[in-house]
Design a protein that fits this description.
There is one protein chain. The chain has helices spanning 45-53, 58-61, 164-193, and strands at 12-16, 33-41, 67-70, 82-89, 99-113, 119-127, 136-145, 151-160. With 196 residues, the chain is an alpha+beta fold. Strands 1-2-8-7-6-5-4-3 form an eight-stranded antiparallel β-sheet, covered by helices on one side.
């Protein structure tokens, strides 16, 4: 399927100075901020979710996080209560050089039945790389379908705590680029593999 509307060709990404609340930490203030990216994908929410949770496929599409180590998964996939390490390439080239390791915990995977029989999902990853008093981060992945059958993938990560200001100053603009890249690469991969 090809998009006939310009808005579906690329993801939109922003750094929001008014942070979005997250399920675990709720509303944040002070130096808190949110990185958010949204795109529309020509695939079902189930297909998008499957691509997100199957980290073995990340090297095929994800140049921002080309590798994930699952630390306690029994089936080799992300799911609630799975602790994992993202190998992050802040250059977005999917290369071993420049990788940063970030430890996260997938806290929840919520499923909702929509009125049209299509499911929507919310997956939440809680940052575990730093003590909560220094830096709190929480990433929310919202996957939903509209009446035309397109899936909206909306991901945001809210950072707060004393180190959030440094994150925003030193890598905020880069994170906006990488979140946009994540969405565009997930879109391209999922659309290519949705019907195979």
């Amino acid at each position: 399927m090809t998009a006939n509307n310009e808005q579906y060709k690329s993801a939109k990404a922003d750094l929001l100075r008014s942070p979005l609340p997250t399920p675990h930490w709720g509303p944040q203030s002070g130096s808190a901020f949110t990185i958010r990216a949204v795109t529309t994908i020509h695939a079902t929410p189930d297909t998008v979710l499957d691509s997100l949770l199957d980290t073995d496929r990340y090297p095929a599409w994800n140049n921002f996080v080309p590798k994930v180590d699952l630390l306690n998964s029994s089936d080799g996939r992300l799911g609630p209560d799975v602790l994992f390490t993202e190998h992050v390439d802040m250059f977005g080239q999917g290369k071993p050089s420049g990788l940063v390791k970030m430890k996260l915990l997938m806290t929840t995977l919520n499923e909702k039945d929509e009125h049209n029989g299509v499911k929507s999902y919310e997956a939440v990853w809680l940052g575990k790389a730093y003590p909560a008093w220094a830096l709190r981060s929480e990433r929310v992945h919202a996957i939903s379908s509209d009446s035309s059958g397109l899936t909206t993938y909306d991901v945001w990560e809210t950072f707060s705590g004393p180190l959030a200001l440094l994150v925003r100053l030193f890598v905020g603009k880069t994170l906006v680029k990488r979140f946009k890249q994540w969405n565009e690469e997930l879109k391209a991969y999922t659309e290519t593999h949705a019907h195979t």
